[in-house]
Amino acid sequence: MLNLDSLLEKAASVVIAGHVRPDGDCVGSCLALYQYVCKYYPETKTHVFLEPIPNTFTFLKGSGDIAQAPEEVWTVDLCIALDCGDLSRLGNAAKFFEHANRTVCIDHHVSNQSFADENEILADASSTCELLYQLLPKDRIDREIAECLYTGIVTDTGVFQYSCTSPDTMRSAADLMSRGIDYPVIVDRVFFQKTFLQQKMMGRALSNARLYEDVSCIATVLTPEDMAEFGALPKHLEGIASQLRATKGVEVSIFLYPLETGEYKVSARSAKVVDVSVIAVKYGGGGHVRAAGFTMSGDDPWAMVELLTEDIRKQLK
Ligand SMILES: [Mn+2]
After folding, report:
1. Distance of alpha carbon 199 from alpha carbon 143, whole angstroms
2. How many CB atoms lie under 10 A from the CB of residue 295?
């Protein structure tokens, strides 16, 4: 297994970064490692670069130190990418990765091609936070680090519900619970609480949904008009893809929403049979067997859905 301490001991400067549009596993793993480096390597110049994080995660220690990767790049001794399936998904922080003296990648995306000098990729791990928990010395995980790791595990397992949840996941989470974290509050904040605007967007997304019974698929689209009507941003759409997937009798759920670039972001989920990561990779995205994402361009999002139902049909044959 990757020995993080042997790398950190030699590094005078460290940049920690995660994927664009950071989720709970990305924020949790980056902040857990950031706190670890700050606490045990106080002399090291440490930065954590992420795109703006959802407000949900601002309760985690160190979140106030997160910055967006600056335009001007400098060379650091060590750049660590977390929860990031490929280099381009690091966004602006990719430049720091490319200029770093040494690079590390810690990730659980099945599509990860091991793009760093040192890679710890475990597709069987529920989350990057579970993997990072395995890598960190247990006697050095304090309550605040445990909060970050637990948050990431809760996010990526849907509160220990998805099939990525293993006995090892539960053992890791159990140990983290024993470190004094307020786990009911974390679960409620991270997974269940929604703002009024988020609830309204959920309602609109569900009422727009269409059922494609021949391929056991439910799909929905939020249009730029839907977004404008409520003044909604992509960050207000958390949880919609999972809610769709919970439709009885449905194998695949597809959720499309517009990005500022004019493209559509596609979130795909599956229940048992279809490997949505295969579909995601076909369109230049990535992810996991049961949850994957990518972008598509065009004017007619429902035509994109039609295209995707053909990809599903091929797998169902
Ligand atoms: Mn993850």
Report:
1. 32
2. 15
Q: Please tell me the distance between residue 83's alpha carbon and the centre of ligand 1 in angstroms.
A: 5
Task: For tokens 């003044």, name the residue.
Answer: 231
End-to-end CA distance of the chain: 40
Query: Which domains are delineated in the chain?
Result: 4-192 (3.90.1640.10), 196-316 (3.10.310.30)
Ligand 1 centroid – CA 300 distance (Å): 30
In tens digits, the chain (317 residues) has pLDDT values of: 999 999 999 999 999 999 999 999 999 999 999 999 999 999 999 999 999 998 899 999 999 999 999 999 999 999 999 999 999 999 999 999 999 999 999 999 988 999 999 999 999 999 999 999 999 999 999 999 999 999 999 999 999 988 899 999 999 999 999 999 999 999 999 988 999 999 999 999 999 999 999 999 999 999 999 999 999 998 899 889 989 999 999 999 999 999 989 999 999 999 999 999 999 999 999 988 999 999 999 999 999 999 999 999 999 98
* Full-model pTM: 0.82
| CA–CA separation, 94 and 301 (whole Å) | 30
25 CA distance to ligand 1 middle (Å): 5
Q: Which protein residues have their CB within 5 A of the ion that is ligand 1?
A: 25, 83, 127-128, 156
